[in-house]
Amino acid sequence: MTEITKEELRQRLDALIGQPISSGQPAKAPDPVNPAMIRHWAYALDDLNPAYLDPEFAASSRYGAVVSPPVMLQSWTMAPPKLAGIHERGGVPVEIKNNPLQFLADAGYTGTIATNSEFEIERYPRVGDEITAETVYETISDEKKTAMGNGFFVTWITTYRDQNGEVLGRQRFRTLRFKTGS
């Protein structure tokens, strides 16, 4: 555990606000929005909205064609999971080479738990859309005392865009980074 003053810790946290989570480049979906993945999602979640599944219905709907469930935005741009070593990474399905929050773990805030996720939808993704995602740190709370331990609520916001740069939606994702046993 690295010794760091509360003031230094706060300064390092504040410096992250507005900064990209990873390379700073938008993550590009490996595939365009497509009916097969929409169908898998709809059946897996028992969300059989005909705007997702029935081309004739969708054509006569306000959407004009088949659309993707809007909360699928995240799934279109997710990196393929790397299962080898997932236990050693604490269940994280991707390798993080340069973790901007490593200094929190080094200061003893080793626990991480997702607390909530919120979506703002501008428009439903359409079949053929090529989606990109840009993620930045939005807010980091002051240290809070929680049942899990003392820690910081870290919120990042991902903005999803189509191939023309039009915003499809935003997702806020919040985690608690905490000291176990505090």
Characteristic key phrases:
single chain; 182 residues; alpha+beta; Thiol Ester Dehydrase, Chain A; six-stranded antiparallel beta sheet; 6 strands; 23% helix; elongated; HotDog_dom_sf; FAS1-like_DH_region; FAS1-like dehydratase domain-containing protein
What does this entry look like structurally?
It is elongated and about 65 Å long. It has helices at 6-16, 35-44, 50-53, 55-60, 73-77, 102-106, and strands at residues 27-28, 111-121, 132-140, 144-145, 150-161, 167-178. It has a domain at 6-30 and 82-178: Hotdog Thioesterase (Thiol Ester Dehydrase, Chain A, Roll). It has 182 residues and is an alpha+beta fold. The model has no long low-confidence stretch (mean pLDDT 91). The protein starts with 5 loop residues before the first helix and ends with a strand. The protein contains six helices and six strands, in the order αβαααααβββββ. Helix content is 23%, strand content 26%.
Question: What is the share of helical residues?
Answer: 10-25%
Number of strands: 6
CATH fold title of the domain at 6-30 and 82-178: Thiol Ester Dehydrase, Chain A
Low-confidence segments: none
Mean pLDDT: 91
CATH architecture heading of the domain at 6-30 and 82-178: Roll
**Full CATH superfamily name of the domain at 6-30 and 82-178:** Hotdog Thioesterase
Strand content: 25-35%
Shape: elongated
Could you say which structural class the secondary elements and strand pairing correspond to? alpha+beta
Q: CATH first level of the domain at 6-30 and 82-178: which class?
A: Alpha Beta
Query: Radius of gyration, Cα only, in angstroms?
Result: 19 Å
Q: What's the story with the biggest beta sheet? A: 6 strands, antiparallel
**How many separate helices?**
6
Topology as a string of helices (H) and strands (E): HEHHHHHEEEEE
- The first-to-last residue Cα distance is 14 Å
Domain FAS1-like dehydratase: 28-167
Protein name: FAS1-like dehydratase domain-containing protein
InterPro entries: FAS1-like_DH_region (IPR039569), HotDog_dom_sf (IPR029069)
Pfam family, one: FAS1_DH_region
